[in-house]
Amino acid sequence: MSIMDKASKHFQEQIENKKLNSYYVKEWDETVYFKPCLTWKEQSQILDLSTSGKTSEALIQTLIIRATDKDGKPLFTKADKVQLENDVDPNVLVNIVAAMNAESVSDVGVIKKK
Fold first, then answer.
1. DSSP 39-86
2. Over the stretch 5-59, which tens digit does the pLDDT of each residue have?
3. Distance in Å from the first CA to the final CA of the chain
4. I need a labelling partner for 59 at 20 to 30 A (CA). Which of 14, 78, 88, 95 fits?
5. Averaged pLDDT, 86-96
6. Helix, strand or coil, per DSSP, at residue 34
7. Nearest Cα to 59, choosing from 19, 103, 100?
């Protein structure tokens, strides 16, 4: 097995072996479920927005990418972006994304100089 095969297998195992995390949104009387990990492409979409100073768009993109129902089906689509930006309490959205980020596992470390 090549190193690429091993790397891919490792990530697929992470995705398949992780159950959905959840956050109860009392304001909506609903539970939002979310994926415990993201692909690099998904992460880069969020990071690109954030580093471009588009923090609120990054927050909405996080919600669109990660929020699911209990069966793992997306709750929101790109078509919901404008309504999420204009018709939904931003404090609630911040709380949901904060819960998602708190539950995320990241193995990103700091490289120390020798």
1. -HHHHHHHHHHHHTT-HHHHHHHHHHHHEE-TTS-BS--GGGHHHHHH
2. 999 988 888 777 668 899 999 999 999 999 888 889 999 999 999 999 999 999 9
3. 33
4. 14
5. 97
6. strand
7. 100
Residue whose pair of structure tokens reads 């089906």 in the numeric block = 73
> How many helical (H) and strand (E) elements, i.e. helices and strands, does the chain have?
5, 3
* Helix, strand, coil percentages in the chain from 3-state DSSP, rounded to 5: 55, 10, 35
3-state class of 82 per DSSP? helix
DSSP run (H or E) holding 111: none
CA–CA gap between residue 63 and residue 53 (Å, rounded): 18
Q: Which residues pair with 21 in a beta bridge?
A: 34
Percent of the chain with pLDDT strictly greater than 70: 89
Q: How far apart are CA 7 and CA 45, in angstroms?
A: 22
